Amino acid sequence: MVSVVNITMLKKFVQLLVLNLTLTEVVLSGNVLIWPSDGSHWLNIKIIVEELIQRNHSVTVLVSPKSLFINSSSDFSVKFEEIPVSYKKSNIDSIIEHIIRLWKNHRPTPFTIWTFYKELGKLLDSIFQVNTQICDGVFNNPSLMARLQKGGFDVLVADPVLVCGELVALKLGIPFIYTLRFSPAWTVERNCGKIPAPMSYVPAALSELTDQMTFGERVKNAISYSLQDYIFQSYWKEWNSYHSEVLGRPTTLCETMGKAEIWLIRTYWDFEFPRPYLPNFEFVGGLHCKPAKPLPKEMEDFVQSSGEDGIVVFSLGSMVKNLTEEKANFIASALAQLPQKVVWRYKGKKPATLGANTRIFDWLPQNDLLGHPKTKAFVTHGGTNGIYEAIYHGIPMVGIPIFGDQPDNIVHMKAKGAAVEVKFNTMTSADLLSALRTVIYQPSYKENAMRLSRIHHDQPVKPLDRAVFWIEFVMRHKGAKHLRPASHDLTWFQYHSLDVIGFLLACVATVIFMVTKCCLFSCQKIGKTGKKKKRE
Amino acid sequence: MVSVVNITMLKKFVQLLVLNLTLTEVVLSGNVLIWPSDGSHWLNIKIIVEELIQRNHSVTVLVSPKSLFINSSSDFSVKFEEIPVSYKKSNIDSIIEHIIRLWKNHRPTPFTIWTFYKELGKLLDSIFQVNTQICDGVFNNPSLMARLQKGGFDVLVADPVLVCGELVALKLGIPFIYTLRFSPAWTVERNCGKIPAPMSYVPAALSELTDQMTFGERVKNAISYSLQDYIFQSYWKEWNSYHSEVLGRPTTLCETMGKAEIWLIRTYWDFEFPRPYLPNFEFVGGLHCKPAKPLPKEMEDFVQSSGEDGIVVFSLGSMVKNLTEEKANFIASALAQLPQKVVWRYKGKKPATLGANTRIFDWLPQNDLLGHPKTKAFVTHGGTNGIYEAIYHGIPMVGIPIFGDQPDNIVHMKAKGAAVEVKFNTMTSADLLSALRTVIYQPSYKENAMRLSRIHHDQPVKPLDRAVFWIEFVMRHKGAKHLRPASHDLTWFQYHSLDVIGFLLACVATVIFMVTKCCLFSCQKIGKTGKKKKRE
Questions:
Q1: Which end of chain B is more exposed for a tag (fewer CB within 10 A), N or C?
Q2: Tell me: the pLDDT tens digits for B276-289?
Q3: Which one of B461, B475, B476 makes the best mutation probe of the A interface by having the most chain A beta carbons within 10 Å?
Q4: In terms of pTM, does the model score above 0.95?
């Protein structure tokens, strides 16, 4: 039976890894250009940037001065190239508010799916306005373009949520890599990356469905895919013109995006439902996760004071700055009824119902708290980064999703038995309290969270190392063409073999027609001969 | 720009790998049961067995005394369990002859595709007779079954080419892993493993097509898939009954095979055309490859005597024991015209036309020869193992494929620009000589072989380590259910969403019908009112 082995085995394994390293080509010192992104998207790319620098690569980040998260005066040794833009930070804030409003008013239930996707289309329009300013800030800026041309970059890394990274790479004549959490209904991954997504068991991103669907859910899934494709095709039209103009030849956004050498997807099979993918897709979810560091003295004392009951970590992320007084009181009174101590990230006014067991902080060392042995549960808005920290440390979750992929993320964690959901719009104190008691006291939630954690930790290579490996691979080999499927060269009807099926059906129809004609002709002949014979 | 870095970077990388190891669970000492296979299939599994033993696992191999390749008195420390069978070695030889005859007479050109697949069906029948004897030898053998039950195995590893490994695993209540090169038209991988294979750019295995197909080739591909599915469905019927009987409940071969935790596919993207796959498929092609060892003294002297011209390695594999005198003379006279020295693996009578530059051997240290710096080209029958040794060492090839996947393999290497094909049935001295001159003197062949070699060596983890990692993973976690797609729980029409599409079409039709009816009704109403008004 299975048993843990001695240190000799461990050494053997390390030897094998070292042998592998010597057999493969040596790590390189390359020159990486980063196309900007913002919010949690940037937090994730930042980890890759830091790792690239650790490994002796030179990294240059393109950045607009209106970026919310990229701090060009930060201390890590990155070069920054500023993109001049005329929009204001308030434009970005209003887009974020628009996103939150969209989910608040039109969460995609079976009855609101049409209005949800229609509103999503409008949102994409306002994003387009800001995004094109960033693109113009590069392409209409000869001195910046000249500096980039002289930069001698080996590869560009971009999150396709902010379009134009692919255009910059093509203009510079260098390969590019995408890092991506998702696009709605996998529109970009499917249409541009050519990843297959059978709608019978691959739920459309944002549909809040799982891989186990009833007939009705499969109908909803099919509609999600179709509506999203329709909206994206309309949205793409503007980008198709933009890309054709910049490249000086007729092209489409999707064709250009499809030239990505590698797609680094920010999930893994601890979170994702198993689905088909392609060799140039690498699932590197949780690449930002790391072991917990010690907490600040004051916080550690508070955590230790929880005794056997342990603590609950509460954070609705960096995008939700405030709550209504009513909602804050709901939450505080629920938390006050727990025997656990609670650390709550909250910037608003201190709620009147705040219990003695709850302490409010402007900011939390979230990963260190989730990795603390006293932590029993995590109340989260369901952002991918936070969920991955919970998976990494094996902490069960209460999800209060607000917008974007958050509802979908919580559906994933619920399906895997590691979370309970509370609806943000309709929640009461009792709902939150009951959800917290469930994940803390029903052992299955902890067990499932630990199972996901074991899956996460038990990979041949860590996600961050895999992400950096493929960036380095593309630099070493000037691309990864050997992973690119031939489907990129097919039209949609060729891809679905409609011409072949049509031809084969026509052949069958011709054969049936000929055989029927022959039979009829023979019958007539026999009939005539018979009549002749009768006459004779 | 890209530059090679110093030893500090190397150390950093090793540190990272070690850190990764300590974060993941420690390697285990488990108990592995191997379901037998034969020929080159066994040669590949043997490498995994040796590695498992190296890593302190206990390995037991089930073996029939009539096995051609498994030598139960071999020196590596494996336990063997004998399966009693009544067939003779000559039965196996006649199956091999049948396979060779099938390809010789019915190689699947567009005009012989139907007869090829019909003959393949007959061949599958004779394999079924032998295969069921092996299965009966286990299931009708209570003492062997009792020993296996007491064996405390953690996992079973099988090549599905020999059926029943999956049944043994289910009877023992342990997870199982497949290691597989291919099934014709990916029938098993598609139907039982649920891997998608869009026929527009994924050529059916054995079709001798590439991923770049003309319209005619795509029609041939569609026919290859359909015919193979039809033949396999017929072949499966017998196995469905067998499996239902052994398990004591109605089941099918495919349902049972579909329970494999991991599918270790014996190719990689250096050889394979990029195609969709699933997270429980791992491409571990070339896992048997290793650096060359020094040659025996006499052989090394001969190789060194070739000077600048270098040598050619010639082998048609272990299955082809003899050639006609005419063919052997053709070959020998072609080789005699080369400035290179030639080492030829050949067991037949010495050909009259043998040149002074050619030396015949009963057996060759093929990998050591291919890894020799003097080697310029490899003449091969195109077995996967040999091709992978050539890829590993970056040697261009002349392929003389004979049967099985060999013609397909050579098509892959031709498409990647690393090989030239010579037809076994029709080849002349001139053909072989011209092919050899092409791969030796046209630099693109060596460059492409080197490119494939670089791709092969530049993976995050070596193929053998990945194969063993997943075997160990399944032992540690008692399976890999998190990688299993939900498509296994769907019927074929659910999988293809035919019910959903039908329902949506019915909805659209109903709406069109209702709208038309309403319009007609309104028109009639307006018409009537108009007439009334006219009358008034």
A1: C
A2: 999 999 999 999 99
A3: B461
A4: no
